[in-house]
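Bumping my old thread because nobody answered last time. Still need a sequence for this structure:
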């Protein structure tokens, strides 16, 4: 691609859901967006849609849980884009809704590897690049979750990783000050994506019942990401919660 005058953004998990919506919104807002995820076809579908709407981007498959894969991804960004202005650390997975004594250790490790270690690996490489590039600095946005504040029943692996993301966000935000690297977190509740397709039909509640919950269009999340991404580096949204107004959160449990 060579150098571009546009700001360069990287969106992980860009093949579907929040990642796809955010990548498309960032392209529409004028960013050149590098899209990554494990599967080529969904990434290409996102890119094709963005280009058809006048955007620019690059699809680079990668597994965020693998250090070598992340290093290769950032090597492509460095070589083909020259810099990175924004990382949206979005990639994540859930885990089966079981009590902790029934949770397979390999499922726990996979959830930690993708949700937490993957976020760290991408933030680590972004930090290194943003620290060295000229002009120096950039922004990292981590996808937390409502579960970073209040867990759902039977969600120990997912909840633990999202609580850890909050600590990671605070540390990166603090350590990035000296290098003009801003870091914030967006906590999302009940956005309509393939992962939440059954929410309106019924979700398990703390009292053991299953009840429908309100949802919101994923475009509201994408618009919030664009807002955070478009701020000058001397302004930061440290934490933002975007949620369906009537979903159970405050007072949950």
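Sorry it took so long. Here it is:
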């Amino acid at each position: 691609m060579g150098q571009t005058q546009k700001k360069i953004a990287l969106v992980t998990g860009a093949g579907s859901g929040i990642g796809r919506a955010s990548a498309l919104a960032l392209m529409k807002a004028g960013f050149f967006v590098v899209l990554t995820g494990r599967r080529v076809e969904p990434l290409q579908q996102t890119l094709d849609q963005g280009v058809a709407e006048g955007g620019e981007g690059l699809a680079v498959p990668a597994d965020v849980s693998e250090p070598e894969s992340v290093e290769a991804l950032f090597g492509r960004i460095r070589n083909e884009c020259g810099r990175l202005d924004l990382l949206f650390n979005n990639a994540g997975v859930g885990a089966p809704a079981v009590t902790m004594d029934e949770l397979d250790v390999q499922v726990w490790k996979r959830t930690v590897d993708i949700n937490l270690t993957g976020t760290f690996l991408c933030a680590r490489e972004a930090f290194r690049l943003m620290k060295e590039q000229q002009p120096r600095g950039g922004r990292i946005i981590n996808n937390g979750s409502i579960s970073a504040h209040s867990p759902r029943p039977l969600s120990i692996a997912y909840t633990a990783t999202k609580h850890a993301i909050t600590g990671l966000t605070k540390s990166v935000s603090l350590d990035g000050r000296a290098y003009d690297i801003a870091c914030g977190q967006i906590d999302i509740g009940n956005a309509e994506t393939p992962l939440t397709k059954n929410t309106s039909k019924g979700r398990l509640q703390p009292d053991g019942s299953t009840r429908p919950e309100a949802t919101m269009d994923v475009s509201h999340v994408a618009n919030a990401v664009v807002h955070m991404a478009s701020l000058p580096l001397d302004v930061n949204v440290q934490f933002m919660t975007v949620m369906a107004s009537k979903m159970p959160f405050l007072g949950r449990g």
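Strands lie at 8-12, 32-36, 56-59, 86-89, 138-143, 181-189, 203-204, 210-211, 239-243. Let me know if any region looks off to you.
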